[in-house]
Amino acid sequence: MKIGVIGAGYVGLTTSAVLADLGHQVTCVDFNEGKIAMLLNGEIPIYEEGLAELVVSNTKAGRLLFSTDTVSGIENHPVILIAVGTPPLANGSTDLTFIKNIVERIAAHAHSHKTIITKSTVPPGTNEWICQVLTEKGLDPGSFDVVSNPEFLKEGTAVHDSFHPHRIVIGAKRREASLLVRSLYQKIKAPVIETNLTGAELIKYASNAFLATKISFINEIARICDAFGADIKDIQRGLSEDPRIGKYFLQAGLGYGGSCFPKDLSSLVSAASEKGREPSLLLAVRNINETQADFYLEKLESSLKDLKGKQITVWGAAFKPGTDDLRSSQSVRLIEKLIDHGSSIHVYDPVAKLNRADVTSHKDMYDSVKNSDALVLATEWDEFRSPDWNRVKKLMRGTLFLDCRNFVDPGIVRSYGLIYQGVARQ
């Protein structure tokens, strides 16, 4: 199948490479000339495990092309997949500017039947609106199909997730359009859920909202455990053995971040409010997450007394391991709060680059801790699990180690003369 993918960002590039690897002829189009120039030179603008190899191999095989020509991307492909950004507005609703731009271009340049697949995460009702706009712009309703096919990729494991999804969701008005989209993934073994356009949109939102809820729930329980002197690891283990609850997304820590959970939760809250529904639970989930960094800030203040003038090293800037994504990173949120309190911040992350004038970034994890009063683990990269603690202790000025992800064995850290603090860890 010839597929034109509009958008070479995280979702668009990954989807393009995967579809090409499945045997389709894919052209990935983006307005950003610099990004396309990089891709044409074999350079990958984002870090995602396995993605570079997938892009290079399929480019060499001739199945994956890159272009800035949106018109050609629309005219020459019977299937158009929209994977452009849908960033949040100041009020929490979704900015659909990029979606509107692409829809107008499709209306102007679709001279044959098009199956338009929306991969971007959009508020409920958006795909119905796309159908309406295309018709109002003069396209015959029989000359196009709009299909909602949301992505469920996890940054850091996106390539693996694409080939081994837990489910494939397809929302369409016509059975023929749904079958066509199913055929794109025929080599992938996964349950297929067919629904209407709005149903598919809400499956995506509900999935992310539920996962965010689990994270905020365990963080709330961790705060309670901290007050009572209980170990949250015991509670997590007790919960995870119940099959009704499950073991995933029950790790207490700094909270969720990234390009999906914060944005999608706020968008769902906004959409519900517009319909006169007050999403009280979702508002609480968001509030817990937004105050989680304050909880750790208080721990630092309690131990160091005055944060002003203190040198604090933060290990990890990305919102999670396996990615260089800094969007809505809870680590960055904590760093900003420490800066506001007058601390001098030194950061080491093996992949993510935090380019700020008020932060000293390091290329070596041990260099980053020299003369620091405290060390904060904010992102659970594997290399942070068992560093040379004796070396860390000798390089630091202070002895406080704050484990914001409950990632390291407290006993090991303490055996080297460091003070271990996590959340509800004994």
Automatic annotation (TrEMBL):
Binding positions (NAD(+)): 30, 35, 86, 121, 155, 263, 327
Record's keyword annotation contains Iron: no
Gene3D superfamilies xref list: Cytochrome c1, transmembrane anchor, C-terminal, NAD(P)-binding Rossmann-like Domain
Listed GO MF terms: NAD binding; UDP-glucose 6-dehydrogenase activity
Binding residue positions for substrate: 152-155, 204, 249-253, 257, 320
Active site positions, chain numbering: 260 (nucleophile)
Keywords: NAD, Oxidoreductase
Ranges in a coiled coil: none
Enzyme Commission numbers on file: 1.1.1.22
Pathway info: Nucleotide-sugar biosynthesis; UDP-alpha-D-glucuronate biosynthesis; UDP-alpha-D-glucuronate from UDP-alpha-D-glucose: step 1/1
SUPFAM superfamilies, alphabetized: 6-phosphogluconate dehydrogenase C-terminal domain-like (SSF48179), NAD(P)-binding Rossmann-fold domains (SSF51735), UDP-glucose/GDP-mannose dehydrogenase C-terminal domain (SSF52413)
Classification via InterPro entries: 6-PGluconate_DH-like_C_sf (IPR008927), NAD(P)-bd_dom_sf (IPR036291), UDP-Glc/GDP-Man (IPR017476), UDP-Glc/GDP-Man_DH_C (IPR014027), UDP-Glc/GDP-Man_DH_C_sf (IPR036220), UDP-Glc/GDP-Man_DH_dimer (IPR014026), UDP-Glc/GDP-Man_DH_N (IPR001732), UDPglc_DH_bac (IPR028357)
GO BP annotations, alphabetical order: polysaccharide biosynthetic process; UDP-glucuronate biosynthetic process
Catalytic activity as recorded in UniProt: UDP-alpha-D-glucose + 2 NAD(+) + H2O = UDP-alpha-D-glucuronate + 2 NADH + 3 H(+)
Record domain UDP-glucose/GDP-mannose dehydrogenase C-terminal: where: 313-410
Database matches in NCBIfam families: NDP-sugDHase
Family note: Belongs to the UDP-glucose/GDP-mannose dehydrogenase family.
Protein name (database record): UDP-glucose 6-dehydrogenase
Biological classification of the source: Bacteria, Bacillati, Bacillota, Bacilli, Bacillales
